[in-house]
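Slide 14.
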Amino acid sequence: MTATESAASSPPVEPAARPALDWRIRFGALSLIWGFSFLLIKVGTEGYAPFQVTLGRLLSGTAVLAVAMAVRRERLPRGARTWGHLAVAAFFLNALPFSLFAYAELTIPSTLAGICNATSPLWGMALSLVALSEDRPTRRRVAGLGLGFLGVLTVLGAWQGFSGLDFGGTAMALLASLSYPIGWIYVRRTLAGSGSSTLALTGSQLFLGTAQIALVTPLFASAPDGFPLLPTLAVVALGALGTGLAVLLQYGLVAEVGPTTAQMVTYFIPVIATAAGVIVLGEQLSWNTPVGALVVLAGAALTQSRARGGRAPSGGARTGCGARTGIRAGDHP
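Slide 15: predicted structure.
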């Protein structure tokens, strides 16, 4: 949900008190939380099945937002239609991408998963040109799209015939990144002007995503024999920080400094994810991975840019129901 739509759908509120922490500190914290999410997924899958990692993540994240909603006395959305749209949003923005990333990291490094996640703005721009009539292609944005996918080919080592690449895991990570903009566009078309606050919509969306994964997990994974310490801590941190706290941080940043500045966190996530994978997990890194990642980020930046005096591209910062609760919302991941 874009900032304009979020404002249109939320009731008027009194101006909030100035946060105790400077927005730059919170911006840095959000970048670190989402950047380390891919490392936490990798550690979590060492002790749990992918669907169990996703379920634990969503449970922890939902608990954090439930507490925030209780403190702020937020009311749940009303109407079966709204809840139906939220269920679809939960699938595309939470249940599906979280599960795909968890399965992907069984066979690919967390560094590659983090870089695949950075392709979301590219997929979003390509889809918005088709699905959103108000989005018009410009030379700058089309160039950014082409440059971004050239960066993807560089990361994957296309000139080497994709030698040593796990196609299944990479495809799942790219599909997870594609799932986010599908969800954002759906939210934009169906939930703008719903009358509920952004926090209430997001918390309800996470609850529905948790219910979806809870139904599926027993079909694909047996109950764990135990609860290994590090994987358990990783899953709880992934949900409480990367899915719960991160949403609240981004919500505050968008309200304080606007969506354009807040969405810049997207460009720090793959850098931090790569550094964390190499330094903490000891993952190997060839030259084409960071070079390709920089090209992807440059392309993504072009797709989100605008000419002087022009309109900002649609699907800006991922806030509200479209947040990377995850993403990331740019958890994201």
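Speaker note: DSSP finds 14 helices and no strands in the chain.
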